Amino acid sequence: MGRVFVEHLSGKAYCCKYCRTHLAKVEELLSKQFHSKNGPAWLFGQVINVVPGPKEDRLMTTGMHVVSDISCTKCCALLGWKYEDAHEESQKYKVGRFILERAHVVEASPSAQPPPPPGRNDSSVPPLSYFDGHSSDMDDHYF
């Protein structure tokens, strides 16, 4: 296996809860009105540092969608899914967008530094600062 390449975003960003890899800029958050089997989920326009799984049909409360699960590039944690297609015309706005399950993300402050590479213990790098906000808005979930 080769070296894992991860991008670091400037400014406020949402990160993987497990390894703190940056996933999306705060400005990419489109809606907090979604829900997954694990609780609240957020819709993003663009995300980075994720690996898509195979496409599959999935029945959700808003109808049948074609989705691919997305996992963190660095730690392989399942984070959410990407909407590949929607069968209902009213749901086509989701196509090409991403759901990140709230249970799997945290927000990094603009001054936060990326974690040191594996195997490096640099005490001169300040620790990351995060907050764990919570939203209970719900719109879409699958079963």
Automatic annotation (TrEMBL):
Region spans: Disordered: 107-143
Domain Yippee, chain residue ranges per copy: 12-109
GO MF term list: metal ion binding
PROSITE patterns according to UniProt: YIPPEE
Entry keyword set: Metal-binding, Zinc
Biased composition (Basic and acidic residues): 134-143
Keyword Isomerase in record: no
Superkingdom as given in the UniProt entry: Eukaryota
Keyword Thylakoid tagged: no
PANTHER family referenced in this protein's UniProt entry, alphabetically: PROTEIN YIPPEE-LIKE CG15309-RELATED (PTHR13848)
Family from the record: Belongs to the yippee family.
Protein name per Swiss-Prot or TrEMBL: Protein yippee-like
Upper classification of the organism: Eukaryota, Viridiplantae, Chlorophyta, core chlorophytes, Chlorophyceae
